[in-house]
Specification:
The structure is a single chain. The protein has 134 residues and is α+β, with helices and mostly antiparallel strands. It contains three helices and three strands. Helices cover 53% and strands 20% of the residues. The chain is rod-shaped and about 115 Å long. The N and C termini lie far apart (115 Å).
Amino acid sequence: MTALFRAPIRRQAGVTLIEVLITLLVLSVGLLGVAALQGFSLQANQVSYYRTQATNIAYELADHARANRSEVAASGNIPNAGFWSTRAAQLLPAGTVNTSVTAAATDGIVTITVGWLDDREAGTNASFSITTRI
């Protein structure tokens, strides 16, 4: 009589645990990527907001100069320019407004530059400038 020897059945131990650990690693890397994407999105949104505020201030100031065309032609300056500088300082980080009026008595060309501190890179300034005829 021959004895049949059966090899003992070996169970794989720990394979499920390794699969779970790899899944957690992949999931955590993906979540870190989503968090970084959200941070970049917020930063880009902030930059866009500042540019929109600067554009609005510049166009409001240009409209103000057009509304007071006779004063600009007589003095060569835009009236109430201090108000716009204060408004830029309130809405933008380190916001400034610079205006220049050339040929005030004839063509009345106004250049308006709104500047602010761009926080994406330390110490850099961004600006928006328009030139218009009033």
